[in-house]
Queue: 4 jobs
Job 1
Amino acid sequence: MAEIITESGMDFIAENTFHIEKSRLYTNLGEGIRSVEFVRVIKEKLLFIEAKRSFPNPDNPSSENYENFLAEIINICDKFIHSLNLFSSVKVGTTDEVFTDGFTLPEKVTLVFILVVKNHETSWCRKIKPKIISSLPSYIKKIWKPEVYVINHEIAIKRQLTFSSLVDIIDKGERS
């Protein structure tokens, strides 16, 4: 059976994955450091994946919603940046943490930040992405040149990041 990581009510494919949020490195750091759920390699793409059940609707003009929206954007950006730093600290050997068995990196990768919001409208996702990009520090954009995607569960299934149901997991396991 295929390995899965369940986050925010979604079952993610855990092939070639470093579950950074559950790593000893992250859990021992305590408050002040944030993490995405996991890091996954697909071909030459290094994906930092954050999952959310919900996210403030960018189309709701109320001041309370907008404040919540901006706070979530900052939170997501922090998670991407902190996770990139944590991952890099393992890669260069400045920590005692090691990647899990089977986790391999190609020689050269493209950095990709992905936010998956389970029940979000596709049009709302399109409005979140530019806000995340503009909120990332310029040094991150200049040095790492990350691609940024905000998708819902439906698109995550199409992009083969998540399974649609337990049936999909069983079917994939039988094909392996």
Job 2
Amino acid sequence: MLPTEPPPSQWSFPSPEVADEHGLVCAGGDLEPGTLLQAYRHGMFPMPMHGTIGWWSPEPRGTLPLDGLHVSRSLRRSTRRYEVRFDTDFGAVVAACAEPSRPHGWIDERIIAAYVRLHRLGWAHSVESWADGELVGGLYGVAIGGFFAGESMFHRRDDASKVALVALVEALRSSGGVLLDVQWTTEHLARLGAIEMSRSAYLKLVREAVTLPMATMWTGTGD
């Protein structure tokens, strides 16, 4: 099933190229589905700041090449310990990513509500690791065409979030995905194969990726 296009945003974004040294393009607006999709299609993503919403486009930008994932022997063993599911409990994944005890937490109630709305329209998705009937790790993000923007991930057991990431990459690679955005490249993501690229190179890739047909893993039209 294809996602539902929401009404367009009432806001217009400036070019990501005007971002400051921290990657902040602008602040304000809203988190309506049309606003979120417009931002992602133009290479930006939201994060709360000082009571409002900041719209970000980092320089450099972190991405994970779909043919460049590093899966260690121990991580490959871990993939056999968990059951991976897609979109069976999106709300629980976002809530776990938003747990207040997590360091540097930024996901508030506004963000949770906004992405749940986007999920119901078919644009936001979760990849989940389960064990013994319990959700133990996962990630969520936004899919547009051949593009997937990873937003956050969590784990309650060893390697559970990494196993979800491995499943995401393998599914994207086999279903028409071309670009996996990870925003900033952390040491943890770099060990898994994430790389940095210039903002201008990223913007060119995202403009092309969002015009492609939706990856079949999200539409149920694959083999």
Job 3
Amino acid sequence: MANQYTKDSLPRRQLAKKNGEITYQGYKPCSKCSNLERYTSNGSCVKCEREKGLQNLLDDELMAPYRTKEKDAKNRARRRETIRENNKRYSQTEKGKITSNLSASNRRAKVRNQLPGDADFEKIRQIYAECRRISQETGIPHEVDHIIPISKGGLHHQDNLQILTLFENRQKGNSL
């Protein structure tokens, strides 16, 4: 039987093995998928071998001895624990707190000391509710805008708020 490797590809595979690499780029493409990437262990096509492995995983009869109730329960418990830990980590971060536009605006104003003492939170809440209502009724996104931007020294006060379409607000930016 003739050697299945060309003279050029043999050194490439041996070099990859010597370097401890799992795959290497062969010279001859795979006859099935035309992929050049090969495994150093047996010289087979990476893409075709992965597809074969996935087919085997989907074969219930072949995988039955490996799928047991204990393993399934253990995997479910591990996934639940991972989800719990991620949720705990997410909720402990500042970014993890889900805030509405109103509470986000209030927080930014407090940080910049631009929330005056005479601000009527009920009126501010009504402005944000009106903005949501208009957006839902018209189908055009609207935003609550600060007439004098907070970044320019404006206050988060009901007299400094107006409702604009998203397009108008983005065009305005933080200019007066």
Job 4
Amino acid sequence: MSNIINKIARRIAETKFARNAIADAADLSVFKEKPSAKTFFGIFLMGISYVMGLPAVGLLGVYSVYYNDVFLILLGGPFLLIVSHLVFLAGMYLAGGRYLMVIIRWAARTVLEKYIQH
């Protein structure tokens, strides 16, 4: 089984992405820097999206029962969930865009170096 994993790791290490990650010694030093206002706003949007998601739909369901209006939850529930997902994606774009490739490059380098050495 380890022979298969080693062969797969060697094939992946031949790709341009993996060669660059290993050659650049990709690390996580970017996380030592102070986050920008854009990053904080992205994290804030991701947090708000959780409040807009299921808790808001639950509250909308309570209002729907209280006012005896089924259309409130039938139309408002999916709308709130869609908006919540869009807000989360915007937050991911603002906060995580810079860091995502750093993590992927670091993970690729560490995993490949582990399996290529053996």
